[in-house]
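Bug #77: duplicate submission created two jobs. Keeping one. Sequence:
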Amino acid sequence: MNKETRHKRFFHLTSIITDYFPAAGAHFLDMLMKNLLGNKILLRFFSHQSKRRIENLRKPNRFLIAADLNMGDAIISSSGVIALRKIFPQAEIDFVIKKSVKDLFSGDPDISNLFPIYQGAPYPTEVDLFKLSHIVDSKEYDLIINYSPMISDKTFGKNRVVNYSLMAAHLIRNEKFVKSINNVSYQAYLFIINLFRDYLPSGFNLSFEGSVIYLSEEAIESATEFLIRNNVPDELPIIMFNPDASAKFTMIPFDIQLDLLKRLCAFECTILLGAGHVEKYIERKLLRSLPEVNRKKIIIIPVEFKLDAYTALIDFADIFITGDTGPLHLAAARKYSQSQGGSLRNKTAVYSIFGSTPPRIYGFDSETPGFFAANQDAPSRVFVSEAVCRNITCINKLAKTCREVRCFQSLDINKIVSEVAGYLLRTMIYRNFEKNIIERYTVYYSPKPNL
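Kept job's structure:
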């Protein structure tokens, strides 16, 4: 039985358990996984195994980091590039990622050679594995960091390989401790820091603010032209809403999205609505289902809009709202210009709505203990449903096969709208607005705003 088959069967079994016993099954799986895969003995084993792989590695100077296969995974794995560059400033650091996200990393000065080869997801294709093997054969790497559970270490031949196992065990164990930061980008960074702890110079700065993305001038210009072409007013705030997701268990249900859009349309703002790439035409269905008065406030971002331009458009938004999917990590990452090298606006508040997946692992929240903040000069908030069947195995949303989607049970939409209203009210944008406009927002915002 190959790795892909074992993987599918395991997560199918966990789905059956929570199909028949939602609450009890979730509790059982959490206890099993946290005590089995997150116990101290296993952590010590993985730690010892990783340390053995770098024994006698005197002056490592050539690294390869292989990201996992999806868009968000590339951004997450780039944390490892940041860590390696801090420890080995003169090293050659190569990075393997998904082909479709190459424009987000092609200007990153921390990356020596970028290999955008993956096309399969959630499992690699034979072509992906062949290309990866060819890259490894063409160079003599001192060490390969494999962040993908779907790519066997055997793919890298006889090279020294350290894989994700230790990081995965830490992620599972840390779910027991609700006040410890367990964000996967943060843990991907710490994974490298801890691996090379003996190489750190005295006074080494361990801090990590988050992932970064580099955008071309063409992408920024494309986003700017889109706003001008659609007559988006400068004086009004922009809310960007992503209705799509890579899995049905993280896809915000249609009726909730519709209700949320109706309420957002009550604000004086422009709403940019993303197109569906997985859930085709969801943006059109939402627009058709809205009252005519609401439709006038919404501008659809066309499906053919390039990913880097879409990312630049996020930077223009005051608030970005999404479920747990790749664009969440796009919004959370700090954005830089490839040609200028300087920081872009980076003032987008990131609001994420979680169904199945563990929010502390994938979410960003600047106010709640145990969460990692988005790398933006604006707040980030996580809104979590009360799904009785949510458990640690939901971390792999693409492999789950639950018959019934209970993931968004008892989601508090009022809280989301209240937070949006409160943030918009606190921004400088509204200081020159008339009193009656301010009063419309305070209806949705119960705490007194700090102006």
